[in-house]
């Protein structure tokens, strides 16, 4: 490092959207490396809607690694943060900015400390995949800062070690997380199935039923399911492999009926696994159930699916309408049947194509 100028700060800011699984990841075969028991498929939201913005900085004047999440300092001592930081530092490359007199050699990155400030523009730990956008953004911004040469799939394998679902947020459009076979995790990574433009008729609407932090984190929920649910074993071995093939086909052919049928069934089976866990885990609430019944009834009355629904590990509904016309109807009906709650601090708002409703819950 150039000794004469020790006051410099190098900084990178990145923004990463969240992703919502349509074939769910639930269960690890390796807790430390975060290796899943089945493949999963997700859709990444538009970057300007539900997203994380992270700024990472490095300077010789920083004396330890620090992180702020939503303006509150959090500890980086957890294994997941440490694993991501270690992997990124291992892959870091030489960096030079002649104008500023900054020269960092590969070995110097080990000694330089980082400061990380991250902000989620949507509820954290409420079942809208904040860990996905959060760790994807962390890895992406650190990789830019430390001049990594790895491609997106290789970076996804690092983000996976922060939070499994994060590996899929390194890509836009439809993304598959391949579970892999290698017990060291080298082949457990994300690949893009189709880009953002492939099926742009679809409109995603998110109804925030509750923005409160969930009682059981995804990590501990899936650990308990792996330990106690027989349905999880059956799902991972017998059900998901077939659904993955069918879902890839549905996405390729823009076959909304199959897509919706698979996404809804998979969400329901994931929540059935949660109920099959001992003690049972309840992520959905009455409002979530009413939304499911409502969409099911609507789809039946139309003779074919118009809207797909899926719920991650929380009560919030993600609905995918087959086109803009259906999305407009869906929004109107949701606002009528599930009016925004004036008692909460949240208002309903519409964001371009992707809408968010805050509902009474
Ligand atoms: P969610 O359903 O929101 O993904 P999880 O239980 O999977 O909930 O994960 C929540 C955890 O993810 C948080 O407690 C925090 O540790 C981590 N997380 C959330 N946002 C970020 C972020 N922007 N950067 C780093 N980690 C984050
Ligand atoms: C229901 O990726 O949040 O959203 O790997 O322990 O961090 P960790 O869990 P996380 O789990 C996501 C579970 C899910 C389904 C999915 O996103 O595939
Ligand atoms: Co998560």
From TrEMBL:
Residues 204-361 form the Mvd1 C-terminal domain. It comes from the Eukaryota. The keyword Lyase applies. The keyword Lipid metabolism applies. One of its GO terms (cellular component) is cytosol. Pfam families: MDD_C, MVD-like_N. Residues 17-190 form the Diphosphomevalonate decarboxylase-like N-terminal domain. Its EC number is 4.1.1.33. Keywords: ATP-binding, Lipid biosynthesis, Lipid metabolism, Lyase, Nucleotide-binding, Peroxisome, Steroid biosynthesis, Steroid metabolism, Sterol biosynthesis, Sterol metabolism. GO terms for biological process: isopentenyl diphosphate biosynthetic process, mevalonate pathway; sterol biosynthetic process. It is an enzyme of class 4 (lyase). It catalyses: (R)-5-diphosphomevalonate + ATP = isopentenyl diphosphate + ADP + phosphate + CO2. It is found in: Peroxisome. InterPro entries: GHMP_kinase_C_sf, Mev_decarb, Mev_diP_decarb, MVD-like_N, Mvd1_C, Ribosomal_Su5_D2-typ_SF, Ribsml_uS5_D2-typ_fold_subgr. GO terms for molecular function: ATP binding; diphosphomevalonate decarboxylase activity. Performs the first committed step in the biosynthesis of isoprene-containing compounds such as sterols and terpenoids. Belongs to the diphosphomevalonate decarboxylase family. This is Diphosphomevalonate decarboxylase. It comes from Acer negundo.
């Amino acid at each position: 490092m150039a000794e004469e100028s020790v006051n410099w700060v190098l900084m990178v800011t990145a923004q990463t959207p969240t992703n919502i699984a349509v074939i769910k990841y639930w269960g690890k075969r390796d807790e430390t490396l975060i290796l899943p028991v089945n493949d999963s498929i997700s859709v990444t939201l538009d970057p300007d809607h539900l997203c994380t913005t992270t700024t990472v900085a490095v300077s010789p004047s920083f004396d330890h690694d620090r992180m702020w999440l939503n303006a509150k300092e959090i500890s980086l001592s957890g294994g997941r943060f440490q694993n991501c930081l270690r992997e990124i530092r291992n892959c870091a490359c030489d960096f030079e900015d002649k104008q500023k007199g900054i020269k960092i050699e590969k070995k110097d990155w080990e000694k330089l400390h980082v400061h990380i400030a991250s902000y989620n523009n949507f509820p954290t730990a409420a079942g809208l995949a904040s860990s996905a956008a959060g760790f994807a953004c962390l890895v992406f911004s650190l990789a830019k800062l430390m001049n990594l040469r790895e491609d997106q799939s290789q970076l996804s394998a690092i983000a996976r070690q922060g939070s499994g679902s994060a590996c899929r947020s390194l890509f836009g459009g439809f993304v598959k997380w391949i579970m892999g076979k290698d017990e060291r995790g080298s082949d457990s990574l994300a690949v893009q199935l189709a880009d953002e433009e492939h099926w742009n008729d679809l409109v995603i609407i998110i109804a925030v039923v509750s923005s409160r932090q969930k009682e059981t984190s995804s990590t501990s929920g899936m650990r308990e399911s792996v330990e106690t649910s027989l349905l999880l074993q059956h799902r991972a071995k017998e059900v998901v492999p077939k659904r993955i093939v069918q879902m890839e086909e549905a996405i390729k052919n823009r076959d909304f009926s199959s897509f919706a049928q698979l996404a809804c069934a998979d969400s329901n089976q994931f929540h059935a696994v949660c109920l099959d866990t001992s003690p049972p885990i309840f992520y959905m609430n009455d409002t979530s159930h009413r939304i499911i019944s409502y969409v099911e009834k609507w789809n039946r009355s139309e003779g074919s699916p118009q809207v797909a629904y899926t719920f991650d590990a929380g009560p919030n509904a993600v609905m995918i309408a087959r086109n803009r016309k259906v999305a407009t109807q869906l929004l109107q009906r949701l606002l009528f049947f599930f009016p925004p709650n004036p008692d909460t601090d949240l208002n309903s708002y519409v964001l371009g194509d992707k809408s968010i409703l805050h509902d009474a819950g």
